[in-house]
Amino acid sequence: MNFPIIHTNFWDAVIAIPVIIIITQIIKIIFRTQSKYVPLVALLLGLLISVFISHRHHLIAGLFMGWFYGYAAIGNYSALKASLMAYRKK
User: CA dihedral defined by 23, 27, 67, 69, rounded to 10 degrees?
Assistant: First the structure.
């Protein structure tokens, strides 16, 4: 079995993850999604963006990187929220 070559590029780090965070927040506001489902929405958006935009010619690479997109967006949002809450308490 040959593993796909996956390159991390500008799209991965600078565009995809903030786009997922923004779209997730818009979906949360418009559809009044419960907070326990927001990480699932971010993961699904990451998979969709990766499979259909970033890595549309290789499904395995798209799924693999989609998990990273979704979970990176979840982690970044969580870290930002925790930092803001700690700053407000200070």
Answer: 20
